[in-house]
What does this fold into?
Amino acid sequence: MNKLFLTLVISLMSLLSIAQSNDLTKEIEGKIEFAKERFDKEIKNPELNQKAETWYLYAYVYKEIAKSEVFAKLDATPEEKSVKAIEKCKSLDIKQVYYSEIISLMLELGPIIYNKAIKNYNLAVNNNNNTEQYAVATYYFELFYRVIDVLGKDDKRFIDQFIEYNGINPKKTYLFAGFAEDQIGKFNQAHKFYNKVIDLQASNEHEKINSFSLIYYYEAELLIREENNEQAELVLDKALEVWPNNKEIVVLSINFYKNHNKEDKLADVMKTAVKNNPENITLLYTLARNYNNISKGYIKNGYISTAQQYQEEAISTYKKAIELGTENKRMEFGLNYNLGIIFFNKAAQMYKSQTGGVAEYQNILKQALPYLEKAHELDKTNANVIKMLKKIYQTLEMNDKYNAIQVE
It folds into this structure.
């Protein structure tokens, strides 16, 4: 329905403009070189360069050069000259005498410019992110959006339909344009294009349908490079809400939250990552350590109950990782050492504060024992492990083990 309507609109507009355009352009057809020379002079003529017709015909000539390989040698930037001329024509055409001609020309010129933008973008990607070709691509992307802007607010709805009709995805174009701008160091332009699509205030469902995880990733990554951490965090938070299982978003978020001590958020994103990769020991190890760090932070601030909850999460996660097993001896040592020390420190704190009875204190040390013994088995030289084992053996009156470790 929409495409049929659009086709009819374009056809009717073309019919309306043919009678006028034929008279205007009949002297130009087949004489592009002559016409170029003529209108290059006319736009410098003080009398003629104040007429909308002069600028329309100048734009028409350069549009013809832009679309023809035969005439390509006549000018290096015909698309830009055509767009500038249309801008000038429109500013002079107060009564909109050339409105339909402007529309028709833009409809023809827009796809020419867009195709050159995409062509150079793909060449840049395929040539190891060639910055020179990205620069050419950005030139055409920016020019393409000038084609859209030149028609004004009232006409953009029509142009958006035209873009869709021609199979152009405007939002993906913003993604490509933003990335290309980023690659050549034009960061403000990159942000401008990315944020044409990103809407932090929109619902998650809206963004899932109308946006792309990749554009959020690129925007967040650029903000991190610029050390705009507050805005980067907002973008990452929204991206995780919309695409919680996207690997690239998850990895970028983990690194960001870790580097900026956002431990609660790190725990949340790690938990999601582990849920999707339940047998990934590296993720479990990182999550367990993070839970323990959060627990320490809450203890420091006096939130004992919350600290205990995170400590239990740490213990549970360490146990899960140990049960899965790993051939990485260094990681195996870390898992057992860290879990053992959680129990040991818990017992030491109980002893220091004189809370709980002797039996409870000894029971916690017994829980630490197998993990510290495993850590000692993996690394006989670790002084901290030896020291803790001595204390446990002594407290639990495990004299044979105490004597054995003494002579090691």
